[in-house]
Amino acid sequence: MDFTLGEELETVRGLAREIFTDHATTERVRAAEAGENRIDAELWEQLARAGLLGTVIDEDDGGVGLGIGGLCVLLQEQGRVVAPVPLWSAAVAALAIAEYGTPQQRAAVLPGVVDGSERITVALEEFGPVAAAEPACVAKSDGSRWRLTGVKAVVPTPFGADRVLVAAMTEQGPGLFLTATDAEDLRWEHCETTDHDAGGNLQLDGALAEAVGAPGGGVLDMVLRWAEVALSALQLGVAEGALAHAAEYLRERVQFDRPLGSLQAVQHQLADCYIETDAMRVTLWQAVQAVTELTDGHAPASAVLVAKWWAGDSGLNVVHRVQHVHGGIGVDTDYPVHRHFLWGKQISGLLGGPSATLDRLGSVLVESGART
């Protein structure tokens, strides 16, 4: 399998790396974390000007048309520098509307997404042992629209967003529903997250919403796969950025008249990090290919879960080892590598941690074996 990026994706990578490197400095990240919405608004505007916010959106809707592969390249570069912009959640929501939304929904939302004037987020998770694919939040038909009732947990970066895409259960099965973040009959509760995002718990008391795609038609399952692939790409970037910090630090830090990087125990730690990061990269692009081709109903699910497990388990291993080899400075909250640890910890638990992912993967493989 050839994982070489094509010319278009290499162009996206180069442009994204330049923008993120220039703007996501330690000082800028710290300033964004002290802000009300925890977003670097200037960086978000730069991404819009460069056309990168429309990476996943088709050209007919004003985007670039590079789909989930283009998004993964973009997220990997974001993760390298832990840039405080709500890219994965906004892009997954936009992709859902681009693929499943009505012409009216696409016309109302996507142009603003591309130029940065409209921001969307996703409400996929809930409190307690509730699987994202089987939400407890309920949607009931009300004429041509729907009424949402329930609670969604830790919605990523909702403050300052214009709309939220909510996963809810109907009589036909699970679906996705679009509503304004300031609609009547909903309220937000601010919550802190490990990665310093300003998350929000969402209480819905009959809020009006529009369905995106047909409820019970598999839309939510597909969007969850996109989200899991996106988070795997972001985690890969976080791990690569952390490893780069470690390599630089260990080259320069000297103890007992020897660079720390020359010590065998340290080299073994970094070798493990390199192996696990490479495994994350391979499984990510296998998942991207599986989701893009959709050649088998089970292949995309299993490939995505494999990538998600590697991202959750190995991604956390990498940022933990990197922090460890930095010694005392690794726990300094002002030192850059500490943010990689926090991001790695947060991402590893989103949409289910490694153990939950492994359990789901086992169920998928058993079901697939029963069918063959």
Q: Could you please describe the fold and organization of this structure?
A:
With 372 residues, the protein is of the alpha+beta class. It has three domains: 112 residues, Butyryl-Coa Dehydrogenase, subunit A, domain 1, CATH 1.10.540; 91 residues, Butyryl-CoA Dehydrogenase, subunit A, domain 2 (Beta Barrel); 153 residues, Butyryl-CoA Dehydrogenase, subunit A, domain 3. The protein contains eleven helices and nine strands. The strands form two sheets. Strands 1, 2, 3, 4, 5, 6 and 7 form a seven-stranded mixed beta sheet that branches. A two-stranded antiparallel ribbon has the order 8-9. A hairpin with a 5-residue loop joins strand 6 and strand 7. The chain is globular. It starts with 6 loop residues before the first helix and ends with a helix. The mean pLDDT is 92.
Distance between the termini: 24 Å
Task: Report the major sheet.
Answer: 7 strands, mixed
Shape: globular
Q: Can you tell me the CATH architecture of the largest domain?
A: Up-down Bundle
Mean pLDDT: 92
Oligomer: single chain
Question: Secondary-structure map with pairings?
Answer:
Elements: H1 7-23, H2 26-33, H3 41-49, H4 67-81, H5 87-100, H6 103-115, E1 120-123, E2 138-142, E3 145-155, E4 163-170, E5 173-180, E6 186-192, E7 198-211, H7 219-252, E8 254-255, E9 258-259, H8 264-293, H9 299-325, H10 336-349, H11 354-371
Parallel strand pairs: 1-4
Antiparallel strand pairs: 2-3, 3-7, 4-5, 5-7, 6-7, 8-9
Helix pairs in contact: 1-3, 1-4, 4-5, 4-7, 4-8, 5-6, 5-7, 7-8, 7-9, 7-10, 8-9, 9-10, 9-11
